[in-house]
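User: I want to check something. If I give you two sequences, will you return the structure for each one separately, not as a complex?

Assistant: Yes, each is folded on its own. Here is the first sequence with its structure:
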Amino acid sequence: MALQKKGMHGAWTSRWTFIMAATGSAVGLGNMWKFPYVAGSNGGGAFVLIYLACILLIGVPVMMAEVLIGRHGRQSPINSMNEAVHVSGADLRWRSVGWIGVVAGLLILSFYAVIAGWALDYILLMSSGELQGINGATASAAFDNLLSNPGRLIAWQTLFLMLCVGVVIGGVKKGLGIAVETLMPLLFLMLLLLLVFAVLKGNFAAAVGFLFSFDLDALTWRGVLEAMGQAFFTLSIGMGAIMAYGAYMPQDANIGKTILIVAFFDSAVAIISGLIIFSIVFATPGIEPSAGPGLMFISLPVAFGGMPGGLLIGALFFVLVSIAAWSSAISLLEPCVAWLMEAKNISRVKANFIIAGVAWVLGLGSVFSFNIWADYKFAGFTYFDFLDFITANIMLPISGLLITLFVGYLIKRDIIDTEMQGTSERIIRLWELTIKYIAPFAIALVFIMGVYDKFTS
């Protein structure tokens, strides 16, 4: 049945629509939230250089492999992987790769919607003037008030998931395509406006010096592993999103060149976000660039609240974060919806509400992890911490590792030759080298160290 449904979901109207979609999937809270504080805690410039190298050596090759499988299958990641395994004559257990990615994506969506809800809440907090002139203690209390209110968190979580459903329900061309063609240019415009503000009102010179000064002494081996992990996770690898979007990619689009453009845009957003955030941080006494996860929801509101016109710019910043989260979340919803349509022969509308409903219910555990379930822990994990750990440290690295091994050693050569048409032999050989040797080793290292850190820290 799956083979009969090949191509049932449609295709992107152009290569650039795919680029916008894949960039939207890649650009998310990892760029706006995680990259700045991880770079800050690892010395800045040297970390950024290692991060960019890892994007090229790990992120781009694996992303190309996912798109290759998706475009060949023209179905959901589960069925595209099934077909690639079948055509290649590989052991049927390799079909589990599609399942691992899609299930991981659904679990991530469940708690991602909760975190994205924080950004939506902060748009109103900034706009209301409530954060004008606040200090660190007041900002921390405001954030704690949000986390301690389950009703408020559920309301934002529900709204965010409904925004995602509103896009994915329209299908590839009328929903996802139109959304990314609108959201991504808007995101880049807002990013540039905030960059102008950072140049005019922040300490832009200090931010540039911090992000681009090369100080090897500030970078440890732990920082190198952080850079490898950030490069892997920032491109939405291993969670089914890129494979699903690849299924809708035009056949005449060059996979290598297209993915390089996506990687460039994703890296540019992360670096520009870092410049914006650190310009504001360095212009505000008492705030450190290595402030950690609280940098966005505690430190930055203090900085915005103390600047002329800062609250308006702060509201704009959280609109930007929300758009980035929205563009990523729809790419997590689509693979599950596509599979349910194929497997159960139901409409896209019904499939959307079923999957979003499952994500909503699963997300309630994450909501309660910050309040009424905060004291309930298993092996040191809250429900939220456990989902974050099992997806980021177990499922995604395993999914990415298996994809590299399958494409590197088992996939039928005809599939590679067909999907990589138009790519030079030199580039193909370089890609094969990285997908066979470099990327698997690096991902395995990230996986091992990620698990080791969790259980030894």
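And separately, the second sequence with its own structure:
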Amino acid sequence: MKVLMKKDLRKVGKKGELVEVSDGYGANYLIPNGYAVLFTEKAKKDYEKELELEKIADEKRREEASLLAEKLKNITLEFEAYAGRRGEMIGTISFKEIIEALKKKENIIIEKKMIVDKDMIINGFGNTKVKVELYKGVFGFINIHVSLKEKK
């Protein structure tokens, strides 16, 4: 039986491959569980249409990510922190605080996994840029400014 793989399945085939499998395996496991469809010309055309739609959706997401990257260039998030005896900042600005501030002030939703510099620590006054991957290969920078918080 020839089947067209809809999903990757280890030791069988990758998505889009035409695979020869036993009749029982194809009819009782691959097709009912959505891993494959019986190979016909219609199935091949449907798969090609699906690829075309995925490509269009991918381009749209990439374009939206590029627009968001441009928008992020013009945004600077302001934070305040206390200084210690030597004038150094006490504590750090966490990625969680940055994400929440971006959501609250600019209504932009970014997930923590999008942040590229995971080991970066914001523990000083002044300007800092945090690099984020908005989509595959599309990067943006979140501008952070930390200023001195006056004691009362």
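Because they were folded independently, the notes below concern the second chain alone. The first strand starts at residue 2 and ends at 5. The chain has a mean pLDDT of 91.
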